[in-house]
Amino acid sequence: MADADLSTEVDALEHALASIEAVSDLESKRSEIVELEKQASAPDLWDDQENAQKVTSRLSHLQSEVERVEKLRARIDDLSVLIELAEEEDDADSRAEAEREIAALRVAVDALEVRTLLSGEYDERDALVTIRAEAGGVDASDFSEKLMRMYMRWAERHGYGTEVYDTSYAEEAGIKSATFAIKAPFAYGTLSVEQGTHRLVRISPFDNQGRRQTSFAGVEVLPVTEEADHVDIPEADVRVDVFRSSGPGGQSVNTTDSAVRLTHVPTGIVVSCQNEKSQLQNKVAAMKVLQSKLLEKARKDREAELNALKGDGGNSWGNQMRSYVLHPYQMVKDLRTDQETGNTDAVFDGEIDDFIEAGIRWRKNSESE
């Protein structure tokens, strides 16, 4: 790549980062950081543990956001110096290093640009993910477990925390359903584009005749509720059932009836939790899941009212959204964005950032039409 081309690439990166800085409102974030640092240094901060956790969590999040942009700015500035050096001394090694850094910066700036597209009401929240086996029998259950591992591996690759609330195992293989949280800033906004029906096509390992099977799994993504959400759930509206936790193949993993199932009588919403050690802990965790589902129901009800006023039927982009084909060829393809890859193993191992970023851009474009 010629030096002039390198400079053009840097100019493009400069322009893209400047747009991100403008949208991110860094000065406002820096002012909030100063205020939060004062609160965090108060000697009585931890007298109110809930507020202390909110303060420290928000402070850490903002510092990370600002630092991420500042580091990219510093790298672009250093890149300009490196290109000048390559030009002045006609240094091939410096030029090659600059080309590698341009490629890396392009990926980093693109990822940060996608983050600026997350501006929904709950986008900054942790994500509550539920996966359910749909049509396809044992293949659907096995596929659901593969999807759960895919998202867990994605979180692990990014250093995000996870917490499994409930897993219902299928009799032969895989899972009937699972609910888990992914704990990271913007986890909900990021993963919400994964919501919908996922389809797997393969030679079934459970079919004696080796026939090709198509199976389906549904993915639901909700924002984790916070105290400020005020989801009012009268005690009389919730039926509480306790049962014995179980593992794969129906084996007992707990000799006491510590698992909890909550039924919200007015809506019929049912949630359960069996991964904590005590019945009380499971009830608290299940209540969090129920609150998230009721919060999402209220959001959807509001959205339906708006759509009715607009005269359209709402959008249905969250239904059929991705195909995973393992036979007769290898291909994972998003049906909304046309994003695709032939490296199916990598996808099932959590390499789904390209699909997520394409989905976020697609959604933003759809909303603006």
From TrEMBL:
Q: Where in the cell is it found?
A: Cytoplasm
Signal sequence, start to end: none
Query: Which regions span the lipid bilayer?
Result: none
What gene name does this entry carry? prfB
The entry's cellular-component GO terms read: cytoplasm
Q: What is the lineage of its organism?
A: Bacteria, Bacillati, Actinomycetota, Actinomycetes, Propionibacteriales
PANTHER family found in the cross-reference section: CLASS I PEPTIDE CHAIN RELEASE FACTOR, PEPTIDE CHAIN RELEASE FACTOR 2
> What job does this protein perform?
Peptide chain release factor 2 directs the termination of translation in response to the peptide chain termination codons UGA and UAA.
* Keyword Coiled coil among record annotations: yes
Q: Which residues form a coiled coil?
A: 52-115
Q: Name one Pfam family in it.
A: PCRF
Question: What's the name of the protein?
Answer: Peptide chain release factor 2
UniProt family annotation = Belongs to the prokaryotic/mitochondrial release factor family.
Give the organism the record lists: Propioniferax innocua
